[in-house]
Structures are given as C-alpha cells and as structure tokens.
Amino acid sequence: MSVTITQNPIIVTSTSAAATTIVTQGLSITKIRWDTVGHATDAHVATVKDKNGAVKWTTTLTPRGTVGEIVYPVESDFSPPLFTDGLIVDVLGDGVLYIYIFEKPPFKTT
C-alpha cells in the first residue's frame, strides 16, 4: 500500500515510509493514530518530521512482556493543532499511521 494523501486522514503504511517529502505545504495536525494491532512488536518506532527534517512527533512501543500480549493503537491528540511545514514519515516500524489534518485535501506535493 502507498501513501494516501487524497483524503483526511493522510494514511501511511510501513512499506511506504521514506525520507521523501509527502506533503510540501504547511499542515495543522489534530491527531495521529498509529494502528499497530497485529503488526508491530516491541521497540518499533514511528516518526513524523517536517520537510526540513525537524522531528514533530515520535513514539516507541514499549516492551509489553510476553509475545502474546495485545498491542493497542497509539493515539496522540493535539489541541491546539501541531503545526508542521510539510510532512515526512521516514520511520514506521510496522502497521498503519493515520494523520488527521485540520486543512482539507487536496494537499500540495510539490
């Protein structure tokens, strides 16, 4: 699956995470949800940066003990919204990242 930027939320999968800029315009992020259920394991990392490489949000799954434990989605709500000048998701250990934006699509990519 690739990055989906034609809707809100923006959707990024672990196979599409890269050091390239996804969106070039300024964005106001209202929520980030990392769905790791059935995918990620302990110590996986997710990182969101602006187009200049400044880290805006990052999290690491903490050890859960035994392998069979359930991993719940990680959610961060931002009030006021988290402003980022462009968007890069260069690290996504596994699973799917949903980035909810205040602005309406279409988003600028060049």
| Outline | globular
Question: What sequence of helices (H) and strands (E) makes up the elements?
Answer: EEEEEE
Structurally, the number of domains stands at 1
- How many angstroms does the end-to-end distance come to? 21 Å
- Output the strand order for the largest sheet: 1-6-2-5-3-4
Low-confidence stretches: none
The overall strand count is: 6
Strand content: over 45%
Largest sheet: 6 strands, antiparallel
- What is the percent of helical residues? under 10%
Taking all Cα atoms into account, the compactness measure Rg is 14 Å
Mean pLDDT: 86
What structural class do helix, strand and pairing data support? mainly beta
- Supply the number of helical segments: 0
Explain what the structure shows:
The chain is mainly β and 110 residues long. The chain has one domain. Helices cover 0% and strands 48% of the residues. It is built from no helices and 6 strands. The protein is globular and about 35 Å long. The protein starts with 9 loop residues before the first strand and ends in a 9-residue tail after the last strand. 26% of the residues are buried.
Topology:
Layout: E1 10-13, E2 23-35, E3 45-49, E4 55-60, E5 74-92, E6 96-101
Antiparallel strand pairs: 1-6, 2-5, 2-6, 3-4, 3-5
